Amino acid sequence: MSETNKIKVMVVDDSSFIRGFYSKIFGSEEDVEVAMAVGSAEEAINVLSRKEPEKYDVDVIILDVNMEGMSGIEALPKILKLSDAKVIMSSSTTASGAKETVEALKIGAADYVQKPSSETDTQDLKSFVAELILKVRELGRTTPVIKKGEGTSKTKSAQKFELHKGIIAKRPNVIAIGSSTGGPQALITLFKDLKDKKFLVPVLITQHMPANFTTQLAKQISEVSGHECREGVDGEKVEAGRIYMAPGDYHMVAEKKDDDVFIKLNQDQPENFCRPAVDPMLRSLVEIYGDRILVLILTGMGEDGFRGSEKVIEKGGIVIAQDEPTSVVWGMPGAVAKRGLCSKVEPLAKLAETLKDISLGQIQ
Fold first, then answer.
1. Is the CB of residue 292 less than 8 Å from the CB of residue 174?
2. 54, 100, 196, 280: which is deepest, by most CB within 10 A?
3. DSSP state of 236
4. DSSP 199
5. What span, in angstroms and rounded, lies between the C-alpha atoms of 279 and 253?
6. Which pLDDT does position 97 carry in this prediction?
7. Which domains does the chain have, with CATH numbers?
8. Which residues pair with 91 in a beta bridge?
């Protein structure tokens, strides 16, 4: 791979150790390079303001959440205005770090990583390095997504795919949503568009996130939607009108006893390298609800949700997906769309209306 084809990364962190650590990680990668590393948000904004693409045009920015002077949260909106680069927030594992990171994802950051600490063991450090490289590669190869309200895009043309020809004129008894990279912002947009709508069925969400982060995301969804969204609790009854979020580090599935359905949490092996994962949620729901399930697959890396969606289609349920131009990464929605499992593939701005249309009165 030539130098000109490398994914260029900017590191923004007030720790010289972290800047050096990230530079070392990418120093051995043939397709990625740290084009610049700066010690403050102010310096990053100054560099990006110079508008000299041959020098300062980068594909991915790794932005520390907490820094001396201007914080990453304060700098993020300015950086997003100055650059089309995808921003990965770099945060601590604390509840405070989670709250700030989810706020950054709401503003427009594409993804996040949890910084290793001095207590991080060797295996976890290897996992962190692998995760960071994967995210930089995936985000660095994508083009800017359509912002809400825009009619055109700088993205590549959407791939061709066939829509599923199954019957969609059914009243679903449950709505299941799966998402990953770019998912927090997509979920917040979706539920903001559904603000004050009445849900006559339960809604279950699996978003790839660790503990603390899912708690904060559930709070954000509650705030924008006007409905309580909270993490599922093991053994609680699933009720219409409630929004359940899979807690970080737990698969969230459903189990039927007599005529009632209950949330079950487990720490079974990760699926698709994730826990929580979308597939186990979908498998459990389709066994209970059969063809009365409506699935929405939002932006995300990988193919989690594909196998579960296959089961949904086999039972006669409905799958819809976010389209490629408005997805941060068209991995998960692309996996179901390109295999012909989707009855609809829609831009993010239309998904709320599509959900209402297909739910046949279950969202009012």
1. yes
2. 280
3. P
4. B
5. 9
6. 79
7. 3-140 (3.40.50.2300), 174-359 (3.40.50.180)
8. 114
